[in-house]
Amino acid sequence: MFDFESYKRHYKVLITLGIPIVIGQIGFIALGFADTFMVGHHSTEELAASSFVTTIINLAILISIGFSYGLIPLVGSLYGQKKYEQIGQVIRYGFYANLLVTLLLLLALGVVYLFVDRMGQPEELLPLIRTFFLYQAASLFFVGLFNVFRQFADGITNTKISMWILLAANAINILLNYIFIFGHWGAPEMGLEGAGLGTLIARMLMVVTAFILFFGSKTFAVYRKGLKIPTSDLSLFRKINKLGWPIGAQMGMEMASFTFVGIMVGWLGTIEMAAHQVMITVSTICFMAYYGLGSAVAVRVSNFEGQGDYQQVRRVSYAGFHLMMLLALVSSSIVYFFQNELGGLFTDSQEVILMFSTLITPMLLYQFGDGLQVCYANALRGRGDVNIMMGIAFIAYFIVSLPASYFFGFVLEWGVRGVWMGFPFGLTTAGILYFWRFYSATNKMIKK
Questions:
Q1: What is the pLDDT of residue 156?
Q2: What is residue 411's DSSP assignment?
Q3: Cβ atoms of residues 291 and 374 within 8 Å
Q4: What's the DSSP call for residue 395?
Q5: Among 64, 59, 55, which residue's Cα sits nearest to residue 33?
Q6: Is 36 within 8 Å of 53 (Cβ atoms)?
Q7: In angstroms, what is the C-alpha Rg of the chain?
Q8: Which of 44, 51, 72 is nearest to 277 (CA)?
Q9: Average pLDDT of 285-308?
Q10: pLDDT at position 93
Q11: Residue 215, Cβ neighbours under 10 Å: how many?
Q12: Distance, first Cα to last Cα, the chain
């Protein structure tokens, strides 16, 4: 029987922690999607080109974010035990590890750039794709640095600080887009290239702001003290990598399924790509809202894990799932009832808006599975139980989702709508398997 009073406190704490993270998560991705919003009103070709680039860059960004999530179980557990100076050591090695990952991702993006003309994209889009790609790839370096500060702040339950930085960065990005894309205030009209420049500058300013706050604020003095303690503890560096890589791989495989779907859609044509990009924008905002709430679940789970209270570990996850489903209901209702208005926000093309509307059904169908997999993926990483997540992600996205997308889209010839039909199958599979792992693992700990 459901006992509301036993969950009430968890709802309150998760909402308090989660709302700033949700806003921050949406803001993080919105830095790139502000480009989509404004470029779509400049030209349909630039919107299609931004679709291809944004899909690939977001794959790298989410791998980077996922790797940095490995810091949360470490920071959260130490925070729950009031070992504040040791958190400073985690920050130090977190920077080392995340810098290494960022350099590897930039190397991979360099390879993609060299072979972009062999990926079946429309020939007329290639010059636009190449220029925008370089700006977005350069901004990834600053994303990697900011991730460390962000996960540290969230892990100590100071979730508002990243939110405000990201909101400020979005405002700056929108202003710079207005100047550079359309050529206002004496600047040349740069189009899609101007969108890339604006995003790069905004992400640089995020890192500058984070460093000023960390090294200048009294709030973080105790953590800076730990940062200054001389040490060569490579075991901590290895532990960060041991936690970070499985999470990065799990999020990377999920995003890779969207990336490969984006490449498939490119085989269908420019209008299909543009409609796909608009729906990716809308659905990713929903996803990042889920992941923001999921991050709050991870933080609370890590706190109770550090205290050894496994009953509360499980209860937090259930409370998070309840809130996740409420969020899914609200977001799905907005998308369904305002689908025409949403399409019109990003483009003036009636062809693109009409095709966008055909993608509403598969998008709504996968909201339950998306909420389920986000909640329990985060509950697992809050416990530091991350190794199995790679295998589950591979099964869900590469064995189930991508083949289903190809089957519905090209074998049954349903087009772009069919390609999107693979997502409900993959995401729901992932959610069920993550839940099963979390439930069975916590069951063992409770029975001890």
A1: 82
A2: I
A3: yes
A4: I
A5: 55
A6: no
A7: 21
A8: 51
A9: 83
A10: 84
A11: 11
A12: 24
